[in-house]
Amino acid sequence: MKFATLASASLGALCASSVVAAIDPLTIKGSKWFNSKTGEQFYFKGIAYQPRTGLSGNPDPLADMVGCKRDVAVFKDLGINSIRVYDVDYTKSHDECMKLLEDAGIYLLLDMPSPQYSINRAEPHWDHDTMGHWQAKVDAFSKYPNLVAWIAGNEVANDVETTPSAAFVKAAIRDMKAYLKTKKLTTPVGYADNDDPKIRMNLINFFNCGDEGSRADFYGINTYRWCGDETDFKTSGYEDITKNMTSYTIPSLLTEYGCNLVRPRTFSDVKSLYGTDMGSTFSGGIMYEYTEEDNEYGIVKVSFGDSKVEKNGDYDNFKKALAAVKPQGVKMDSYKASGKDSVCPAASNVWHVKSDVLPPTPSQARCQCMIDSLGCTFKSDKLSTAEGKLVGEVVGNICGATSCDEISVDTAKGMYGDFSACSSLQRSAWAVNKNYENQRSAVCEAGDVETKIIGSPKQGDVKKCLSEKDDNGVVGKPSGSGSSSSKDEDNSDDSDSDEDSNESSGASAVTAQLAAAVAAVMLLAF
Predict the structure, then answer these.
(1) How far is CA 465 from the centre of its chain?
(2) Quick check: 169 and 131 in contact, CB under 8 A?
(3) How many whole angstroms separate alpha carbon 240 and alpha carbon 232?
(4) How far apart, in whole angstroms, are the C-alpha atoms of residue 72 and residue 80?
(5) Given 102, 256, 292, 387, which residue is catalytic?
(6) Distance CA 244, CA 295 (A)
(7) Apex 194 CA angle, 193 and 196, nearest 5
(8) 264: helix, strand or coil
(9) Nearest to 167 by CA among 132, 202, 195, 201
(10) What is the spatial distance between Cα 145 and Cα 156, in angstroms, rounded to a whole number?
(11) At what angle do helices 510-520 and 424-438 cross, to 10 degrees?
């Protein structure tokens, strides 16, 4: 039975503080959330909150105090109890806004990724830089008692071809849960999918299979099926969504909902979400979204730094819909968690992941040790975009002619090279050095990109690098693990798990994946 109190501050911080939180902590028990003080089942009545008008880039709504004061007052009027925020700048102060939200009884679900540091669905990778930024965000926000949950990925795998990315998201969940544990934190980490009919059951099962350390703590579904009053619980497909989750052993919620094909929106799906249709299965949801942007999903118009709020017709409709529902949950003491963890889906022509093996935990020490072992490497530790494209072509040619297993990935076969979690530049340096060692003339070159020969590398035996600590402080050889299950099962409608299917499915051969990654991603310093 899973029963975890959602502490948003370390034990040390709690003991050192005399401030009494104005908001009750929540607890997960089985597939439900509860108020740990009252024992009442908790339902998220939330809204997605990421105002973008009036500022370029990815603005941080929790650092804009004019906007925060303006919007918290609106949140109270709406009657919501939670917001989902996708992106923040963790270097800024959020104390004042988070306190306003706390005093208003509003919990925060915060996405771990940011646009620059996220897992790319087309060229998935999980490395030190990305993990480090996620850790920094955790460090910045874990002191707030109303930080209730982390979301480690939003619609990352969104079709059959991008299913390899799911392995990297789950590895990220595993590593971030381990990092939270080192901080004596138990804030749950979940995932939000895009409700794609071809891959949704594989995703649902994948993120709830294997050992607890790698499983998601909750599962979110972004769905826009219910459009207008002509749609109902059955015709919208909400009935099917609910059936898929009835035996799920972790909490589920709609992390986005609110179809806008018919406007003004009446939010007739709210009655089903919090009523007898879905209330015993789902823990509520997050309506998309608060502000009217170019995509026309908002219920208000606001601008950064401006206290003015302009409400549209959707605002009152959403407010009335929420006010009309009073979900009747169960008491925590009387609730008995049941069900079995999901069975991991098998690799197939619609699921390009060997589910019982995950990418390794990033290790800055291991990757630097590998770099220190090279006799041929790049002269500069930074490359321009043009140089990156050249290197991508060079690496593609090298790994097309010789084995690059140590830096390669094949998610369908569960193969992750010892240095596959290093940065694209580090992996490229490894390939250039491999080519240097293989050539009889011992020419150190990478096309037109400048290289250098290291006569006496700092590390004489690259195998010793494998014993370096990973970024969570664990010593030992990198292992793509943490999702093992006693058996695999293909839960897709169109399965084909034979060897040929696995080989062609996809997953990322280094010639395509690494070369493209080097050319496309930001090339950072070693």
Answers:
(1) 29
(2) no
(3) 12
(4) 10
(5) 256
(6) 29
(7) 115
(8) coil
(9) 202
(10) 28
(11) 130
CA distances from 496 to 137, 193, 431, 484, 490 (A): 40, 23, 34, 21, 9
- Triad 215, 35, 279: Cα angle to 5°: 70
Under the banding of pLDDT at 50, 70 and 90, the label for residue 373 is very high
Residue 419 one-letter amino acid = F
Element (H, E) at 152: strand 147-154
Percent of the chain that is helix, strand, coil (3-state, to 5): 30, 15, 55
Residue 466 has which token pair? 């494998």
- DSSP readout, 299-355? SEE--TT----EE-HHHHHHHHHHHT------BTTT------PPPBPPPBTTB---T
- Distance (Å, rounded) from C-alpha 111 to C-alpha 92? 16
Length of the chain: 526
Q: What is the pLDDT of residue 305?
A: 87
Task: Say whether 239 is catalytic.
Answer: no
Alpha-carbon span 165 to 39, nearest angstrom: 38
> 519 is written with which tokens?
């050319």
Q: How far apart are CA 145 and CA 26, in angstroms?
A: 10
Query: Which tokens hold the place of 508?
Result: 């990322």
Q: How far is CA 210 from each of CA 207, 216, 470, rounded to the nearest angstrom?
A: 8, 10, 21
Can 212 be counted among the known catalytic residues? no
Give the pairing of strands 32-35 and 252-257.
unpaired
What are the tokens at 320?
A: 């009335």
Residue among 155, 239, 445, 489 flagged as catalytic: 155
Phi, psi dihedrals of residue 218, rounded to the nearest 5° = -155, 165
CA 358, distance to chain mean position in Å, is: 15
Query: Is the Cβ–Cβ distance between 163 and 353 less than 8 Å?
Result: yes
- The token pair that represents 400 in the structure block: 């097309």
With H, G, I as helix, E, B as strand and everything else as coil, classify residue 287.
strand
pLDDT in tens, 220-278: 999 999 999 999 999 999 999 999 999 999 999 999 999 999 999 999 999 999 999 99
**Where do the DSSP E strands lie in 367-487?**
376-378, 409-410, 415-416, 451-453
Q: With both helix axes pointing from N to C terminus, report the angle between 424-438 and 385-401 in degrees, rounded to the nearest 10.
A: 50
In 3D space, the residue among 404, 379, 388, 412 whose CA is nearest the CA of residue 508 turns out to be 412
pLDDT tens, residue by residue, 175-184 = 999 999 999 9
